[in-house]
Each structure stands twice: as C-alpha cells, then as structure tokens.
Amino acid sequence: MNNTLEQTLANTLEYLRLLVREGTRPEEALADFRFLQKQHPDIGMDLLWEEEAYDQSVHYDTLLHLAGEGTVSLSFCPDRALPWPMRGVHRWSEKDLVRVNNTVLTVAEAIACLDFIWDEVRIVNRLVDMCLLREVLEKDPIELSDAELQLAMNSFRRKHKLYKAEDTYRWLEQHSMTHEKLESLVANEVIVAKLRDHVTVEQVTDYFAVHKIDFDTAYIAQILFSDKENAHQVWEQIRSGEVNFYEAAQHCF
Asked: Are residues 80 and 94 in the same domain?
C-alpha cells in the first residue's frame, strides 16, 4: 500500500469518526467532504449516507476509487449505534404508496403502471433526471440567494393564484405540506434551472452562432381591399409616413 493511499484512508477514517462524534447532518457533512476531496485530488471519492427512520440516525460510507484496481468502501459504526443487521430493514408499510379504504397500491405497482401500462415515460424519466441532478449538485453545489428564493416564491404564488396569506395556508393544508418544505421544493427548482443555464449557456451560444440564419423570422401581414383605387390610396399614405401599416389596418377594419 503506497503512502498516498495510506494517508487518504487515515484521513477518511478520522473524518467518518468526526461525523459520528459531532452528529453531523448530511448537508454539513458534504461541505466537509469536499474539503477532504481537495486534500486528496489523486483519488476519486464519493460520500454516501442513509438516514434511519427508526431513530433518525445517519450512517455514512465513503467510496475511494483506485484507478485500474477497484473501489474501497470505508465506514465507521460507533458502539450502541443501530445494529448492522437492522440497517436496511423495511417496515411492511414502507412499500405502500397509496391506500384508499382497504385497497393498497404499492410503489412497485405504481412504477409498473407508469412505465409499462400507462406508458408515462416522462414521469419515470423525470424521476431519473432528479436523481442525476442531485448527484451533480452534491458534488458542485449552486448557491441561492434570499432574493432569488423570494422571487421564486412570489412567482409560485402567482402561478397558483395564492394572492393572500390565507390562500397559501389553505393550499399548504390541502397538500399536507409545511411552508419550509414548500420553500425547499421551490428552491430546488430554481437551483436546477440555474444548473441548466450554467451547463448549456456555451452550447446555446455556439449553436446560435452556427445556425443563426435558422432563427431569422419575418412577420408578414396584408390588408385586403375591395377595389384597387382604395388600396392604392392607403399605400400612398403608408409610403409617405402619414400612417403606419398597423394604423391603416385598424382604420380599414
């Protein structure tokens, strides 16, 4: 084992132990992990975690990618933590998506209907896209200012006609959602839009430069007259600047 890998393993293990000692939540853990990645740029690294619904504890794993060899999985479990056999155990109700009276629709059944029966590929693709976007943003986060979030929230309220505070509270109640959760969802949409702009801005500029002529647009309108004499008279007025085309059209109608 070379010194670089030994040092990386030692630093990563100490990082994992520190997360446990301080009870670090995933958002802060990711920020610290990016600092660890900068310390060891020669080794590809990923941070994974799982939060237990049982006790809200978070278990972290790190993956160290050794080029041409394989991947090292490193984790740390403290004493008196949730036992290893209990991790990943699902309660019987976790697979249930919808319950109507005594009829239950499971997650697997819903996905099967969306994907194969109803052919709603767009929904399934969007779920996949959401996971990919989260992966990118975890590695390279995009900041959102308070002003940007406020503008997005105002736009959301206008779109859903939530002009008064009571309208918003009623909407939140109908959708079983807190205001904090709504802000989080709206913020995610804005961040995704900013990521899309960041990724595509150069591609759009280059494409427009090559295909500029394809975007040329001409708007053509005409005024129909019952006789040539009246048409010629209006044409003279437009040519002389006495009226413009749209004023002439409005007068004729």
From this structure: no
Residue 71 clears pLDDT 90, i.e. is over it: yes
Instruction: Based on the fold, state whether residues 205 and 224 are members of the same structural domain.
Output: no
Q: Which domain holds residue 231?
A: 218-253
DSSP class of residue 99 equals E
Q: What is the pTM of this model?
A: 0.46
The residue whose two tokens read 């040092």 is 7
> Mean per-residue pLDDT for 167-188?
88
129 vs 39: which has the higher pLDDT: 39
CB contact set of 208 (below 8 Å; sequence gap of 6+):
215
Task: Determine the Cα–Cα distance for residues 192 and 135; give it in Å rounded to an integer.
Answer: 12
Say whether both 109 and 149 belong to one domain.
no
Confidence grade of residue 120 (pLDDT, cut at 50, 70, 90)? low
**Burial zone of 33 (CB within 10 Å; 0-12 exposed, 13-18 middle, 19+ buried):** buried
